Amino acid sequence: MTERCGCMNRLKVYRACLWGALVISVATLFFYCKWYLQTRVPDVIRVGTEEEVQVVDLGFKQVSVQTLQRPRVIPGGIPVGIYLETDGVYVVGTAVVETEEGLVREPAGSIVQSGDYILAVNGCQINTKEELIRCVQEIQDEIMILKLKRGDETLRVRLQAVETEEGAYKLGIWVKDDVQGIGTLTYATRQGAFGALGHGITDTDTGKLLTVSGGMLYDTSILKIVRGQRGTPGELSGMITYSDSHAEGVIRENTSRGIFGQAEGRLLRMLGTETVEVAFKQEVRTGRAVLRSSVSGELKDYEIQIQELRMNESDVNKGMIFYVTDPDLLALTGGVIQGMSGSPILQNGRLIGAVTHVFVNDPAKGYGIFAENMIQH
């Protein structure tokens, strides 16, 4: 009798374990399906006007379907020199100032913040560092009113400059009014509208996206390639020719998805006129693709492998993960290097994205933005 009860108890425990395992398996499958739909199925599906669409209720999420004319663009891959002017004078940070008496003061501390834009002083518009310095020297130690832009807010603050031992007047503010660098053109339309970089230009000190009043694209010559190594990103080192005769376009926007504007002259002639379709996100597949770049001095397609697609990644610049497989590009650059941001990625004859970032610990591996997200900036 005791042995029979023991067998029955073991049987009950065995059945309970089976039911528990089944419940856990179903729950795991449920949450996996929910996670898959949330991360792998786009929140918005865009389709061409010529395509017929059947909307399916996915249960776990709602998907918005938009119909639009499928864009056609000319793929880029050409390095460009970038010059941006900030909207007003950009505040990098504040600092202490030593007065003529040898005292230490911080006149702008807790009043002006990193990331602010100084738009005017006492009603006079400020566009450059030189204008700000001249204005401060003229006002000297009188109270001045600074008009600031802080995020979406415009405000006015009161400041008083400090006279230094040299007889100069200072506010104790580190500022900049322009940014230069090298990037890669992603695409242009036949009308000359362009997109480049695939990510926004941010301040190196604050990490914030810069608000700009405008800028220019200039001709650039690549002088040196520093190969990427594990832990050390490589870079394109070049010379930008800042002159009207070497201007290649006007920059009108600096957004989180790239810089945009109007290309002109020689740059458009270099690109030619052959256009390709822009792929919608749901059309992109893992597997083989090509990265177009003239990093070697010649515009070429290099083989890569799309490893992962992130349809609803909160960071729009990291919509796909890829790794470089082309032996020529690996020998030349080690993979992805600084200056290659914006290099177009094509698959099955369509523009699917652009290079945005490199994995610091694996230069052969990088992130990309979907071309659809870039075009719809």
Question: What does this protein look like?
Answer:
It is an enzyme of class 3 (hydrolase). Its EC number is 3.4.21.116. This is SpoIVB peptidase. One of its GO terms (molecular function) is hydrolase activity. With 377 residues, this protein is an alpha+beta fold. It has helices at residues 2-40, 129-139, 266-271, 327-333, 371-375; strands spanning 44-48, 64-68, 72-75, 79-94, 97-98, 104-105, 117-121, 124-125, 143-150, 153-160, 162-163, 169-170, 173-188, 193-196, 212-218, 220-226, 235-240, 247-255, 258-263, 276-277, 287-293, 300-309, 320-324, 344-347, 350-359, 362-370. The chain has 4 domains: 1-40; 41-70, no CATH class; 72-84 and 178-375, Trypsin-like serine proteases (Thrombin, subunit H, Beta Barrel), CATH 2.40.10.10; 96-171, Roll (Pdz3 Domain). β24 (344-347) and β25 (350-359) form a beta hairpin. The model has no long low-confidence stretch (mean pLDDT 85).
Give the topology.
Elements: H1 2-40, E1 44-48, E2 64-68, E3 72-75, E4 79-94, E5 97-98, E6 104-105, E7 117-121, E8 124-125, H2 129-139, E9 143-150, E10 153-160, E11 162-163, E12 169-170, E13 173-188, E14 193-196, E15 212-218, E16 220-226, E17 235-240, E18 247-255, E19 258-263, H3 266-271, E20 276-277, E21 287-293, E22 300-309, E23 320-324, H4 327-333, E24 344-347, E25 350-359, E26 362-370, H5 371-375
Parallel strand pairs: 1-2
Antiparallel strand pairs: 3-13, 3-20, 4-7, 4-13, 4-15, 5-6, 7-8, 7-9, 9-10, 11-12, 13-14, 14-19, 15-18, 16-17, 18-19, 21-22, 21-24, 22-23, 23-26, 24-25, 25-26
